[in-house]
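#help-structures
NK: newbie question, is this the right format to request a structure? protein is Arabinose efflux permease family protein
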Amino acid sequence: MVDNKPMTSTRYMDEATMNKSHYKFLILLAFGYTFEQIDVFSFSFVAPALTKYWGVSMEWIGLVNSCTFVGMLLGCWLGGWFADRIGRRKTFLGSILLFSLCSLVNGGAPNQEIFLVARTLTGIGMMGMVVVAMVYIAELLPAASRGKWQAIALATALLSIPLIGQLASHIIPNNPEGWRWILYIGGLGFIVLAFGNNWLKESPRWLISKGRFKEAEAVIQFYRPDVKVDLSAEASGKVKEEKAQETTKTLEVLRLLFSKEYRKKTLVLINLVVWNTVGYFMFFAWMPTLLNEYGFSLEDSLWMVALVSFGSPIGNYLAAFFTDKGGRKVPIVIYGAIIGVLTVIFGTIKAPMLIVGIGFIIRILMDGVFVLMWSYLAEAYPTQFRSSGTGIIFSTGRILNVGAMAMVPLIYKQFGYSVLFAIIGAMYIMIAVVTGIWGERTAGRSLEEIAETDSNKTVSA
């Protein structure tokens, strides 16, 4: 059957076949994710060493975690705002520059005050990069496989976590300054900057939203050398740049997120982002310290966490096989329910190998939910406020994490180890229930189709 529909900018990108240019883009995004993940998790390995060698308290560790999430919160807002204002490419590269520089400062910090400031700034850069990267992938890759490639890029990045865990377990216990070298590794993000100027192109969807059709044509042609790209007909009916820019204002974006057309979707996404982010980081950011407090030695705690961390890339590679099936919604519901049960069990066991085994499975599933969430969120809103909206929704998890990181030692001391993990389990049950009842299926659909469906208020649950 002949398809007589005109070739629009949307169809050019959505119906593309993956080629060398797409793969180069993915390699850089994977490296960006890699150094962001190293920076996120390096502190969980470093924290027990700081309590031992710097003599800091659990409360100070909680303060560092909270300040990191304050930085992440700002990074979500600023990254989303800048990406809609100045473009995906510039914001992506600028964010990597920021967190790479601050990682080096963090590693060389002479005192607790400088460490705290550098860690906060690192958080800004990390989340600025993440917000734009998840949108960048959604906008540039084919509709039928964008979720798969999002998962594969993140899974490849997460291979670095067990590596960092192994390095930390060997370097930190034997050297009072070994923790600095773990933090220095995050500064290697400069590798991405070295190739980014040539390999990265601006998102054509963003260019079109700004009325820059000729530039968009050139980018689409770069990714689609197999066809002749012509957007002249589309350009004549599009909104001009000045009007499109109005939705980069934060208050306007907030109004749209909670408007009648998008309110249900926004609330479902907030529920997913908040409980997944808080639960994930309460579990893994504190795991080495909690195991140490629970009675295991520093060496054993790091060894156990390092083994569990191997579940991260496995979880994302597994998610890649079915993220474009079940519309994102079904896998999120199944994963959330299983995590809820296993996390409660985790808090009741004391045998080291059982802790490692169940923790390993939880890590696989939690990381799977995270990459599913990233695809789900990046697909949710129209191009004009996709990045800003993604940043605002993504930041809700960081807002609660600011308090949650400080609450962990209080919950632990007041109620104990088992109750703490039961609370985390309840968060994932909430994810499964709310997403299952009110979530929509988005996989394989055009981003513009998803947004148009919302505006017509016919989104199916």
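mod (FA): yep, format's fine, and the tokens are attached above. The radius of gyration is 22 Å.
NK: thank you!
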